[in-house]
Design goal:
By secondary structure, the chain is of the alpha+beta class. Helices cover about 30% and strands about 20% of the residues.
Length: about 425
């Protein structure tokens, strides 16, 4: 690439993060929030401006487009690049004000002194490796939205370069942007036939050089408790306080099976919410494990605990429900080794050491892989997503742009 894409990729990113696209798991619509459609319209216009053809925005907030191949090699497969519009429900995405910290010199980054928000390299994986780079944060009262608006900006900046540099030969390129990935619905209404890619990459990873071909097996959990309310003065041996029972269930889960005590391929249960009164309580949560057998073992442990609480509180009714969300994409990607081989080679071609690791979370790529389009995940250049301590390196985003271009070149050369 003959020019530094930092200015262009940051300009796009800074526009996109200002649109509130926080998704909502309680919504029954698709997309779950109106801001996602607002950003989808903006991005669809940008897709046309960078030369993508057949740009299509459907009623559910999915946007697709394609760039015809310019190679004479008919065997070059159609390769896709995918990112998502929504940001996490875990923190506010309203009124995001990106702050650019130029030429990072190391040490903590003060995001908001008044609010006491500081990003310390000790708690920010990869930040210490970004000395001399330009770092973007939010302003201390919102998340930033690099997950995954950085991915959108990276993909469109790469396509813009291809439009202006016809000498870089490539096969057909497909671009797709999805809603509601953060709440596990990103692939629900994805039209694979319209998209038309044989293989794809989500641009939704973290620090520069990362490539991921496995993710958690994931289930959702819901525990409903129906208690029994009586006057507290006459409650002995009669009352079943659903508030207390819910607290008891949450506190009983083993400390070594929580997200804050696990790492790498260790699984966990996380209780994500609890609404409770004396008569009724509902606990929501997630179960995560890279090994499917271990996932099922954790769920059996949870079932056993619920059975014990049912005996402990006979006046209450306690019900556990488990719902499959997604599965580990590695079992699919291992059957198509060239997809990862090209990603690793592209990262090396851009002077980085590839960091191959499991995703401690999910990705649209997991669902899409099982739907028939093998889709690993490549980096965006940031970390600490979903909260006020989120950051992304503009230099890392620029490296991702170059990696996308190296990827399309490798697929064409190997065809």
């Amino acid at each position: 690439m003959d020019k530094n894409p930092k200015d262009e990729v940051y300009s796009r990113f800074a526009r996109y993060v200002k649109v509130d696209t926080k998704s909502d798991d309680n919504s029954q619509t698709c997309p779950s929030t109106p801001g996602q459609l607002e950003l989808a319209r903006i991005v669809a216009a940008d897709m046309k401006a960078v030369g993508l053809k057949n740009v299509h925005l459907d009623k559910n907030g999915y946007v697709t487009g394609d760039l015809p191949g310019n190679t004479a090699k008919k065997s070059a497969p159609a390769i896709g690049f995918i990112a998502h519009f929504d940001t996490s429900p875990d923190a506010s995405g309203k009124g995001v004000k990106p702050q650019l910290h130029k030429n990072y010199c190391g040490g903590p980054i003060v995001v908001n002194k008044k609010l006491g928000v500081t990003i310390d390299p000790k708690d920010a994986p990869g930040l210490a490796d970004c000395i001399g780079e330009d770092i973007v944060t939010a302003s201390g009262d919102t998340l930033l939205g690099a997950d995954n608006k950085a991915g959108i900006a990276i993909i469109l900046t790469a396509i813009s370069y291809l439009k202006d540099n016809k000498d870089l030969k490539h096969g057909p390129i497909k671009v797709g942007f999805t809603p509601d990935e953060e709440i596990g619905r990103g692939a629900d209404k994805f039209d694979l036939k319209r998209f038309g890619a044989k293989y794809a990459y989500t641009v939704d990873g973290d620090v520069a050089g990362t490539v991921e071909d496995e993710n958690f097996n994931a289930d959702g959990l819901s525990i409903t408790i129906k208690g029994k309310s009586v006057h507290p003065g006459t409650a002995k041996n009669i009352m079943a306080n659903a508030v207390r029972i819910a607290a008891d269930i949450i506190a009983a889960w083993p400390e070594n099976m929580l997200p804050e005590t696990t790492e790498n391929r260790e699984g966990f249960v996380m209780f994500t919410g609890c609404e409770a009164s004396i008569e009724e309580a509902k606990i929501k949560g997630i179960v995560r494990e890279h090994d499917l057998d271990k996932l099922h073992a954790m769920e059996e442990l949870l079932k056993a605990q619920i059975a014990l609480f049912a005996k402990k509180y006979p006046a209450a009714e306690i019900k556990l429900e488990l719902r499959e969300q997604y599965r580990n994409m590695k079992s699919v990607l291992d059957k198509h080794p060239q997809v990862m081989e090209h990603a690793i080679a592209a990262i090396r071609a851009e002077g980085m050491t590839p960091i191959q690791k499991p995703v401690r979370g999910g990705t649209d790529g997991a669902r899409l892989s099982f739907m028939g389009m093998p889709t690993p995940n490549i980096f965006t250049g940031g970390c600490n997503f979903h909260g006020k301590h989120e950051w992304v390196s503009i230099d890392g985003m620029a490296k991702a742009v170059r990696t996308v271009l190296a990827l399309v070149r490798r697929w064409e050369e190997s065809a």
